[in-house]
Amino acid sequence: MAALISLLAICITATLQFVFPFVESNSGCVTADLIHRDSPLSPLYSPSETNSERFHKAYLRSISRLNNHFNPNAASPEALQAPMVSSGGEYFINISIGTPRVELIGIADTASDLTWIQCKPCYKCYKQNPPIFDPKQSSTSRNITCQSESCLRLVKDRRCDTNENTCQFYYSYADGSYTTGFVGTEIFVISSKTSPEEGTFPNIVYGCGNNNTGTFDEVGSGIVGLGGGPLSLISQITKSINGKFSYCLVPTSAEGNATSKINFGDIGLVPGKSKVVTVDLVDKQPTTYYHVTLEAISVGSKRVKYFTSNATDGEEGNMIIDSGTTFTFLDPQFYEKLAAVLERQVGSKRVDDPRGYASACFKVEKESDLPNITFHFAGAADLKLNTVNAFARLEEENLMCLNMLPVDSIGVFGNLSQMNFLIQFDLVERKISFMPTDCAKC
Predict the structure, then answer these.
(1) Left, alpha or beta for 266 (phi > 0: left; psi -120 to 50: alpha)?
(2) What digits encode the pLDDT tens for the residues 385-432?
(3) Cβ(329)–Cβ(66) under 8 Å?
(4) Residue 248, by phi and psi: left (phi above 0), alpha (psi -120 to 50) or beta?
(5) What is the pTM of this model?
(6) What are the pLDDT digits (tens) for 319-352?
(7) 90 compared with 236, residue with greater pLDDT
(8) What's the chain look like in SS3?
């Protein structure tokens, strides 16, 4: 088993957003597709929806996610530790669990730690399409005790069944959704067609939820935690993957059936090489999130220093990198300043999205009329966005709208801004690297 696990140090690739058949890559990595919820391959795809309707639904999902992750009115940092958004996941990952294996689909979430799934006996569960996992039918299922190190790491989300001395978890969300159940260990598998054992991870700590309610997507079984906290899947397998994982998100506008991918292991992305932009991760609470420091944003040649209304200028860790949030969110006062600069650069009057969601839209004849947008992160890390990263076209309204929105909380670098970049997280060196890539060809 140890030899099999060591193979993961090379690379294992799975898909981040929906069901994905595994394929073998030319590089020797195990590869699986990652399908966006709005892709024609997605179980949630609606061919009758227009681009504008998808844009507006993505906006609502992003707001819901922010409300569940962050409480701007809270005085304590602990209020920022909500582990996940309860609905509207952007990417799903296919995993197998238990002995014998049961195939499941979960929301892949870089802003969540503990992986949890619905389990039997289900006292109160939401409808899900995959079969519900029954730990009693698995020979490798184990409960953990209330005094175990893993249970103690749950902190405020921990409960204890004193009769059985069994660790329990309880997560609740701002929209009233919740999940609760016992905490155990189990075998998790990310498999390929040629070698199903390559991605075998024994003794993974996870939550087995048997009382779950709320607005969860029925296509999924729960959450696969890819955050930076001690109980995330990434942290638990970090030695096997040399502390590195990466993903490449295909633009939703891409033609054909191209899918995004996530890689567990070292893909050889070297910081400092041509076209690779490397950003330092900031150690900051909560450790779940991947914090970076944004110093400024340039619109064309005009650089606008970033600031937040409720913190000192240049605050370290003022933004998180999050694949589960669609839009990029910025401080409201800074956003207005940035939008004003953008309006002058475009040379066209700024208009609102007719539905009132986006407030920095422009009527332009062609995309080349829009200026370049560059994010300046600490350490002279200048990340130039492509048009697809910075703007969304609403054909029905003949508008190009900025893919960035104001929010009165920590900044979020969302997945629209990350598309067509190969993004590697190095949790040993504490860095994130971006390399421009045509992700549809990966």
Answers:
(1) beta
(2) 999 999 988 766 678 989 999 988 889 999 999 999 999 999 999 999
(3) yes
(4) beta
(5) 0.85
(6) 999 988 888 999 999 999 999 999 999 998 898 8
(7) 236
(8) CHHHHHHHHCCEEECCCCCCCEEECCCCCEEECECECCCCCCCCCCCCCCHHHHHHHHHHHHHHHHHHHCCCCCCCHHHHCCCCCCCCCCEEEEEEECCCCEEEEEEEECCCCECEEEECCCCECCCCCCCCECHHHCCCCEECCCCCHHHHCCHHHEEEECCCCEEEEEEECCCCCEEEEEEEEEEEECCCCCCHHHHEEEEEEEEEEEEEECCCCCCCCEEEECCCCCCEHHHHCCCCCCCEEEEECCCCCCCCCCCEEEEECCCCCCCCCCCCEEEECECCCCCCCCEECEEEEEECCEEEECCCCCCCCCCCCCEEECCCCCCEEECHHHHHHHHHHHHHHHCCCCECCCCCCCCCEECCCCHHHCCCEEEEECCCEEEEECHHHHEEEEHHHCEEEECEEECCCCEEECHHHHCCEEEEEECCCCEEEEEECCHHHC
CA 286 from centroid of its chain's CA atoms: 16
Instruction: Tell me the CA end-to-end span of the chain in Å, nearest whole number.
Output: 30
**pLDDT exceeds cutoff 50 at 77:** no
* Cβ atoms of 400 and 211 closer than 8 Å: no
CB distance 170 to 208 below 8 Å: no
From the CB of residue 179, how many other CB atoms can be counted at a distance below 10 Å? 28
The predicted-structure confidence for 204-246, as pLDDT tens digits, reads as follows 999 999 999 876 777 778 888 999 999 999 999 998 888 998 8
- Confidence check: pLDDT of 283 > 60: yes
- Contact of 269 with 435, CB cutoff 8 Å: yes
- What's the mean pLDDT when you consider all of the chain? 80
- What residues are annotated to the active site? 109, 322
Smallest Cα–Cα separation from 259: which of 39, 29, 11? Answer: 39
Strand partners, 224: 108
pLDDT, tens digit, for every residue of 17-49? 323 233 233 333 444 455 566 666 666 667 777
φ/ψ (deg, to 5) at 406: -85, 145
Q: What is d(CA 314, CA 299) in angstroms, rounded to the nearest whole number?
A: 19
Query: One-letter amino acid identity for 349?
Result: K
Please give the biggest Cα pair distance in the chain.
70
Higher pLDDT, 183 or 192: 183
Contact 58, 292 (CB under 8 A): no
